[in-house]
Design brief:
Length: about 280
């Protein structure tokens, strides 16, 4: 009986934690992107929009208004050309209950020969090994996809554009579709990094165990596996008008996130681990 009670209590605690985490996420209405690149209009817009939705969902900070819900609001309000009308896009975002609206347009999209594959083929021809390029195809893709899109991230409460940038993505692939999808995914990842400016990350080194550095910030703070963070040491206070407004900091090293949990992360030091001490500040570059 006691065991069952403990199990129920743990289950409730986990569900409560998940609910709090979900509730703390900001809701984003991702509007259909306009495509002015001239490259396969429908496909470009759909793939890039889908990759942006996936990136926002995976951030740990944002969640996205479901497409069906967004489509219902568009239909009910009789909106048209949402991709090119910022005022209507913000209004739609508000009606869908989103904190932010994201709108934009694809400005460039194309597939080109992969320079690395071409270089290998040329080297092979120069040294009399024409099959060098062909054998390298197993490891180096022939094609590279490139995409660029402009976006605006709007606060639906104030109507203020909190971030506006152009983001690019480029990746190689085994074929046209593969290269283009990889480029869109890369652009979405770069877009998410731009949003990091809206959510500054700050943590402390909690423990050092061999080559592992544990920090007291994790997925709930928007941290992602693979990020490289700066480690800094605080020294004397910064005093303005007789008040302490902060602490002077000096960079002592960099760490790479290799494992992310809800409230902590495990990192590896890039360089000399002896430079990093328990209690040091950890932040994004």
């Amino acid at each position: 009986m006691i065991g069952r009670i403990i199990a129920v209590v743990l289950a409730v605690a986990i569900l409560s934690s998940m609910s709090i985490c979900a509730a703390s996420r900001k809701v984003v209405a991702v509007m259909p992107l306009e495509n002015v690149s001239g490259y396969d209009e429908k496909k470009v817009a759909e793939i890039m929009t889908e990759q942006l939705i996936v990136a926002l969902h995976s951030s740990g900070i944002y969640t996205v208004v479901e497409r069906a819900q967004l489509g219902t609001v568009i239909k009910e309000q009789g909106f048209q050309n949402i991709a090119v009308d910022p005022d209507k896009a913000v209004e739609l975002g508000k009606l869908s209950g989103a904190d932010y609206s994201m709108l934009g347009k694809v400005t460039a999209a194309y597939i080109e020969p992969n320079p690395t594959a071409n270089a290998l083929a040329q080297i092979g021809a120069l040294i009399g090994l024409g099959d060098l390029g062909r054998s390298a195809e197993k490891y180096v893709h022939k094609l590279k996809g490139r995409i660029a899109f402009e976006f605006r991230f709007v606060d639906n409460t104030t109507g203020e554009i909190v971030l506006a940038k152009t983001v690019e993505g480029n990746k190689s692939g085994s074929g046209v579709a593969d290269a283009f999808n990889a480029a869109c995914k890369n652009a979405a990842e770069n877009f998410l990094r731009e949003l990091d400016a809206l959510n500054p990350f700050r943590a402390r080194v909690a423990e050092i165990d061999g080559a592992n550095v544990y920090i007291d910030g994790g997925a709930s703070s928007g941290l992602r596996r693979g990020e490289t963070l700066i480690v800094a040491r605080e020294s004397e206070p910064i005093i303005v008008n007789g008040k302490i407004v902060g602490m002077k900091q000096s960079e002592v090293g960099k760490i790479k996130v290799v494992e992310v949990n809800a409230d902590y992360a495990v990192c590896k030091v890039e360089g000399n681990i002896n430079q990093i001490h328990k209690g040091d500040v950890v932040k994004r570059s």
